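User: quick one, fold this
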Amino acid sequence: ISDTLCQPDAVEALPPLTTVPVAGFEPGEALPTLNSDPGGWGFAPLGDLSAPEGSYALYAGNGDVSPASYGLLATDATAIVSVTVPEDAAVADLAFQVRLEVVSPSTEDGVLEVRVNGEPRLVLGQAPAGWHPASVSLSGFAGQTVPVSFRFRAAASDALIPGGLWLDALALQI
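Assistant:
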């Protein structure tokens, strides 16, 4: 038995990661499709000096703190971005930054659900304060434009304090 470390003759270098911005939320930039059905507080760009990219983020929640709707769904909002994956992309991920602040860490309210082409890919619940990186795989969609939806649901009890969901820095990593 030998204690020597086996070294390969040649190490294949990985290609550099390319990052392509997908959506921005600064004034004057084109917004993703925003849907607030069945109702409640929807998504909108919001000035946020803590945003990872620029000074605006996409926000959904009850910033006005309205307890009058206690027991009802205060937020059920969806933002949809269309992402074009290059034909030659063997691997592709949609990376983003997320900040989720709600009262209850319930799995049924106060959650973000991310779908790719209609299929659930990621569900996020309560997280420590601040911005956190996240991503979903778009591998297998080379040469296609794929809808990616971000749906945020929060019950009124979650909306009793300022909070909600913030999204920023959406980028395709290939």
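User: anything notable?
Assistant: Confidence is low (pLDDT under 50) at residues 1-16, 65-72.
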